[in-house]
């Protein structure tokens, strides 16, 4: 298969800084869309993959799966896009498209496994896929999304992961006007959960350990903030919520929040991967038919539904735009939660041939 070379930013080792490199992209097949990348969001998954925190990272690693750009070329079989259109790519660039999950528009749960935008198996070129920290990306049409023209492009990028990760459980558990929804944690995922649940008509509450988050939460659409370390406030929340979206990305005690669910209510984990500690106490679950669930991103149809909904309701992420040369510093700041609430890379900065930010020391 014919290829062409593009500039990118990535790393050759878990302990290495991200730095300029060149990668090969396939030339567009009849079903492909070639996209000039304008903006790419920065996700915790990018950092964890670059540093091999989850194991299995293949190097060189080029992260980035919150991609917004403009169509540069289309294959002759492409029908939904034309050159010049705005386009987006999220966390997947392919799946088997034949299994039960794929047939139900749940490509994120593809039984043989979907192809991640980065660090996935590249069935076209061999090796592994490279993400959006690059000039261009070539993706089969089915996995390319339309971007509403009225949205700020940079602030739209995080919708492709942070947005759909919270949208999917809101839709699956049928949140609507009058639903009572709580969000645990106010970060990249949490702030999107509040905005989206509010736009769906829900009564929204934030659980947080930090009283200083109250002003932001209320501005984003929460009607109340409950300080989770305050026993009185937690006791008053008993039996209140139909759905709790837990966005905390590290191990924590979810038993604290289960009493706040209504009968048949659900707490859904979207931030943390790994074993629970302390272990789950099933007593309040059994006595109240309460559920603990998990959810990851969304299918292609669901992601397009989200983008259309956000266009209709003028919803985007709260962002800080950075240059690609500042990505290593951004990773360190992200670990300290020093961003409100999502970094987005202006990929025009990739044209700068400078290596890394000389003022940054890892």
Strand/helix succession: EEEHEEEHEEEHHEHEHEHEEHEHEHE
Number of structural domains: 2
Q: State which percent range the strand residues make up.
A: 25-35%
Shape: globular
Largest sheet: 7 strands, mixed
Secondary structural class: alpha/beta
Helix content class: 10-25%
Instruction: Identify the CATH class of the largest domain.
Output: Alpha Beta
**Any low-confidence stretches, pLDDT <50, length ≥5?**
none
Mean pLDDT: 96
CATH topology of the largest domain: Quinone Oxidoreductase, Chain A, domain 1
CATH architecture classification of the largest domain: Alpha-Beta Complex
Number of DSSP strand runs: 17
Count of discrete alpha- or pi-helical segments spanning 4 or more residues: 10
- Using only C-alpha atoms, the radius of gyration works out to 20 Å
Cα-to-Cα separation, first versus last residue: 39 Å
CATH superfamily of the largest domain: Medium-chain alcohol dehydrogenases, catalytic domain
